[in-house]
Write a structure and sequence with these properties.
- The chain is mostly beta strands.
- The chain has one domain: Lipid/polyisoprenoid-binding, YceI-like (Lipocalin, Beta Barrel).
- 13% of the residues lie in helices and 44% in strands.
- A hairpin with a 2-residue loop joins strand 12 and strand 13.
Amino acid sequence: MNMKIRTIITGNIALLVLAAASLPAVGGTITYAARSGSKMRIEGTSNIHDWQVESPLIGGMLEAGDGFPTDPGQAATLGKVEAKADVFIQVRSLKSIEKDGKPYSDKMDEVMWEHLKEPQNKRIAYHLTELTLKEAAKAKDAPYVYEAKGDLAVAGTTNKITMPVNILPLPDNKLKVTGSVTLKMTDFKVEPPAPKLAFGLIKTGDEIKLIFEWVLSQKKVAAAAAK
């Protein structure tokens, strides 16, 4: 092989290596960040009437690895999925509402924040430790059904919880994560509020239900710094 041909082959190999290096990695981790359009609702009972509070803001991020379906209706294998997530809401973003969504009571908000020990614990936080796909999407507009295990921190107390969650891939590299779980306030050392009113005492039930709808979008990969 003469020197000219060897130089051409070497140059072509170098170009192929550079081209491959510039391509995005197959698989790897995809990061999603929280976006507007989310909400978390807490429903409970009392001896007067049922009540509900809601936050329109859910923060945090989700990182998904190989095997995590990112497109509507994508084929997926049942079992544990490479994923981690950290989710939070600000306690003061929780406000009491009527069933039709109108604001209910500033006084109830203050009582709630006090019992959640808001001055010392500004956030309710959740850390995902394990995600298992239980049922693949049955159609492009259907969600994937998962079992999520993680640590929930409320009012300074952290407990492990397990709950079903639905994850629906949306257009434009977005996700909608929905689910609900029933808990007891006393499990988090939160005393059920019993505010005194002019006509007596309101007694709040210990059991509550958390219902959430979390919208995320895929973070863009940073462009190369050099031009």
